[in-house]
Design brief:
α1 packs parallel to α2 and α3 runs parallel beside α4. The protein contains 7 helices and 27 strands. The protein has about 400 residues and is of the alpha/beta class. The chain starts with a strand and ends with a strand. Helix content is about 20%, strand content about 35%. The longest helix has 19 residues. α4 links the parallel β11 and β12. The protein has 3 domains: about 190 residues, FAD/NAD(P)-binding domain, CATH 3.50.50; about 130 residues, FAD/NAD(P)-binding domain, CATH 3.50.50; about 90 residues, no CATH class. The strands form 7 sheets. Strands 1, 2, 5, 6, 7, 8 and 19 form a 7-stranded mixed beta sheet that branches. Strands 10-17-11-12-13 form a 5-stranded parallel beta sheet. It is globular.
């Protein structure tokens, strides 16, 4: 067993972790970055489509290009990368982080820890769909890796369940590779992905999007042979008499992401609305030495936002590790009407910040309000697209005069 003492330990080397590690190192901290993969970059390496970097680098990049720039920033810093290494546990009393890898066991003793562990896909077993369990049923992320990294097609006639962004992107990718994509099914009355992906991935290629539809049964023994597609009512219940058998040898699931927070359990409380740890505007959890950023806090729309959150977490973690003081007080943000997701959960005075909000239903026109003094007009807000509200330092300080501030979306 090897023991390593560092100022900041970052767990996860995706967009958030790379940004956190390089930013913390640039602040003068001794930083270690741990990831279970051999090389840094995370899921970005299999996202060969464009759409990355527009916010961070002011140009459009593919996922691997975006990862390459983040890795270059890491290489220019003093942060040390530990690949093919799995973090198995965090001791909340000693802050020791136990990791396992080919070189044996390494126990890190950091002053602060940054969690950027991302999210995992909701699997087929969580859906409770009747039928057999043949081959040919896979998540969109697995399909993406098979096609883009391994060069393997999951089938010849596919149907996509769920209209999340990865599902929309894979519908297009499979179509371009010669797979017949029958349709994309969405149980809700509105798509779950970004509007640009609905247009560029489905409409531009004439791939049908069937809203208020789902799958009630799968068919096949060794290999998937087909699925039963059914319409649903406003409550999501199947409508009797609308069943239709659709032949397919591949079922691609895009039914949501789940923040990966196994290491947080028992250390910091989770925000039940977001699925990740409750953090303040400095990315600090309620365990003051533990920071979190990215999709393990809440599912973001853009990797650019994940990278920005990671950079903020890395900077604050480094400042605290090097002797910085904790905020004297926090103003709690209270989730109000029509707010589905909200990050952060509290404001620390003294600097500007971003508040991310996701509405719970499509809104043609409305207002997002925080407390009595902050208001932003909303035009065409959608649950699939996060609202990014920038608060200036003065606005944050004004809100921090109160112990709590309500965050509401008002429909007009």
């Amino acid at each position: 067993m090897i023991r390593e003492k560092v100022d900041v330990l970052v767990l996860g080397a995706g967009a958030g972790g790379l940004s956190a590690a390089s930013q913390a190192a640039d602040c003068g901290a001794r930083v270690a970055l741990v990831d279970r993969e051999e090389t840094p970059g995370g899921v970005l390496e299999q996202c060969i489509h464009p759409g990355f970097g527009l916010h961070r680098y002011r140009e459009e990049l593919t996922g691997p290009e975006f990862a390459h720039r983040l890795v270059a920033e890491l290489d220019r810093s003093s942060a040390e990368f530990y690949g093919t290494r799995y973090a198995s546990s965090i001791n909340p009393q000693t802050r020791e982080v136990d990791t396992l890898g080919p070189g044996g066991r390494i126990v890190f003793t950091p002053t602060t820890v940054v969690l950027t562990t991302g999210a995992r896909e909701r699997a087929f077993g969580a859906l409770g769909i009747p039928g057999s369990r043949p081959s040919g049923i896979l998540t969109a992320g697995v399909a993406q890796r098979l096609v883009n990294i391994d060069g393997v097609l999951p089938g010849r006639r596919a149907i996509v369940l769920g209209s999340g962004d990865i599902g929309l992107i894979m519908a297009r990718r499979l179509h371009l590779e010669g797979v017949e994509v029958v349709a994309v099914l969405e149980q809700r009355p509105f798509p779950g992905g970004l509007l640009r992906n609905v247009v560029q991935c489905l409409e531009d290629f004439e791939i049908p999007l069937l809203l208020k539809h789902t799958i009630s049964c799968v068919h096949g023994t060794a290999r998937l042979e087909g699925v039963t597609v059914v319409e649903v009512d406003d409550s999501g219940a199947p409508i009797q008499g609308t069943e239709k058998l659709v032949e397919a040898d591949a079922l691609v699931l895009s039914v949501g992401l789940i923040p990966d927070n196994e290491l947080v359990v028992g250390i910091a409380p989770l925000d039940q609305g977001n699925g990740g740890p409750r953090i303040d505007s400095q990315m600090r959890t309620e365990a003051t030495w533990l920071f979190a950023a990215g999709n393990n806090v809440v599912i973001f729309d853009l990797a650019d936002w994940v990278a920005a959150a990671g950079a903020a977490a890395g900077r604050h973690a480094a400042e605290q590790a090097l002797g910085g003081r904790l905020p004297k007080s926090l103003t709690q943000l209270v989730r109000g009407s029509h707010v589905l997701h909200m990050v952060p959960g509290a404001l620390a005075p003294g600097e500007d910040c971003h508040v991310f909000v996701r509405v719970d239903q499509p809104i043609v026109r409305g207002r997002l309000t925080i407390g009595q003094d902050v208001s932003q007009v909303l035009h065409g807000a959608r649950p699939s697209e996060m609202i990014d509200l920038h608060l200036s330092k003065d606005q944050v300080n004004e809100l921090c005069r109160s112990a709590a501030a309500h965050v509401d979306v008002i429909i007009e």
